């Protein structure tokens, strides 16, 4: 069934995203996130009119649970990195403000 195949592709991609996050490979993570977004859009395009048998419904539920688990693990790995990045950006902004306020010229 096409819908289940799409869910399985999403599961594969979220697994790759988790691997990338564990390896701190942020470029790959972002690239795979884009692929995941495309697959989700495919699912949305099929709409809710697809009727699944019990087996397919169970498989869909299993996949969604694993995707949610992967997503939580990815967030656990990326949130500290994002916080550090935000701190660096904020610090650089304050440094530019100080340089501008005291006429110290532009920073690198």
Describe this structure in words.
The protein is mostly helical and 108 residues long. It has a single domain, classed as Flagellar protein flit (Methane Monooxygenase Hydroxylase, Chain G, domain 1), CATH 1.20.58.380. Helices cover 83% and strands 0% of the residues. The protein is built from 3 helices and no strands. Helix 1 (2-22) runs parallel beside helix 3 (54-101). The model has no long low-confidence stretch (mean pLDDT 87).
Could you name the ranges where pLDDT drops below 50 across 5 or more consecutive residues?
none
Provide a count of the helices. Answer: 3
CATH architecture: Up-down Bundle
Give me the CATH superfamily: Flagellar protein flit
Structural class: mainly alpha
Percent helix: over 70%
* Rg over CA atoms: 21 Å
Quick overview:
This protein has 108 residues and is mainly alpha-helical. It has helices at 2-22, 26-46, 54-101. It has a single domain (2-101), classed as Flagellar protein flit (Methane Monooxygenase Hydroxylase, Chain G, domain 1, Up-down Bundle), CATH 1.20.58.
List keywords for this structure.
108 residues, mainly alpha, Methane Monooxygenase Hydroxylase, Chain G, domain 1, elongated
Secondary-structure blueprint:
Elements: H1 2-22, H2 26-46, H3 54-101
Helix pairs in contact: 1-2, 1-3
């Amino acid at each position: 069934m096409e819908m289940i195949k799409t869910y399985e592709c999403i599961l594969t991609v979220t697994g790759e995203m988790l691997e990338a996050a564990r390896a701190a490979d942020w470029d790959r993570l972002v690239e795979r996130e884009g692929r995941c977004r495309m697959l989700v859009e495919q699912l949305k395009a099929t709409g809710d009119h697809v009727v699944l048998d019990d087996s397919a419904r169970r498989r869909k539920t299993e996949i969604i649970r694993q995707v949610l688990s992967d997503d939580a693990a990815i967030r656990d790995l990326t949130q500290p990195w994002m916080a550090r990045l935000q701190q660096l950006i904020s610090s650089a902004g304050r440094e530019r403000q100080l340089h501008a306020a005291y006429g110290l010229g532009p920073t690198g």
